[in-house]
Amino acid sequence: MDSNSRFVIQRLVEVRVEGSGSPSSTSQVPCPPIVCTRFQARLVSTVIKYFNLIMDVDSDAVASDPEASEDEIITAQKVLQTLEEAWLNEKFCPELLPHQSDVVECMMEQVQQMEDNIRRLPRGDFRVVVHRLELDRIRYVTSNYLRLRLEKIEAFTAHILERENDLSPGECRFAREYLAHLETHLRHLALRHMPTNIQDLDHNNITAKPNTSSFVFLRVKGEVNGVVIEGDSNNRDEEIDLETGSQHVMQYRPVAELVRAGSIQLI
């Protein structure tokens, strides 16, 4: 960042807090102070620091990684965007969606690289705080995404195992072991005390099925034509077109495949 840009940012940070007395002693150039509350001062300072972090390039970090390139930076941003979209879809979708384990693994590699770069920064550098906040946010998104998937696997185990392609190898192994332990528990707890003719256990009755008739909020990422909306007992089915960027509330079932294909984002 050039010296002029740094000067502008420095002037923006020099704010006068209501009730704090005189303006900042670091002010050297006559310029009317910005009057704001203490909360606003902290907010402005944080935003400016984050802006400075984004706009400024750490020459030491770049020099230490000769293989770093603009393509890699764009790829990292795209991976994070893909992970956040997968997280929101999984959070608001009534059924389990195809796994994004490749995206998760790639993001974890990026997190490790960011942690290595943080260690190279000098002690007391404010960028360390902002970087760690971003790392915590990424870890939360990743862990919550995986936790949501595990909760659905436990709730709809038998149904999910019918579509094993939606599971990662680890999730598939967990689902099979969970169903086996659940069956063993039910037999030991109840079935062995019942007459022989009713001791058979139907896996489909052990766990529930997702309610795909539930309503979801969605945003259209690309124009979609011919979406069939199911009518009630007195109405016929309706066919509608969804425009790019439009937002709707409708049942999940008619748009299930569009969500899986990435044409629709749940919000």
UniProtKB/TrEMBL annotation:
GO terms for cellular component: GINS complex. Residues 210-267 form the DNA replication complex GINS protein SLD5 C-terminal domain. SUPFAM superfamilies: GINS helical bundle-like, PriA/YqbF domain. Keywords: DNA replication, Nucleus. It is found in: Nucleus. GO terms for biological process: DNA-templated DNA replication; double-strand break repair via break-induced replication. It holds the Pfam family Sld5. Its main location: nucleus. InterPro entries: GINS_A, GINS_bundle-like_dom_sf, GINS_Sld5, SLD5_C, Sld5_GINS_A. Residues 120-187 form the GINS subunit domain. Belongs to the GINS4/SLD5 family. This is DNA replication complex GINS protein SLD5. It comes from Timema californicum (California timema). The lineage of its organism: Eukaryota, Metazoa, Ecdysozoa, Arthropoda, Hexapoda.
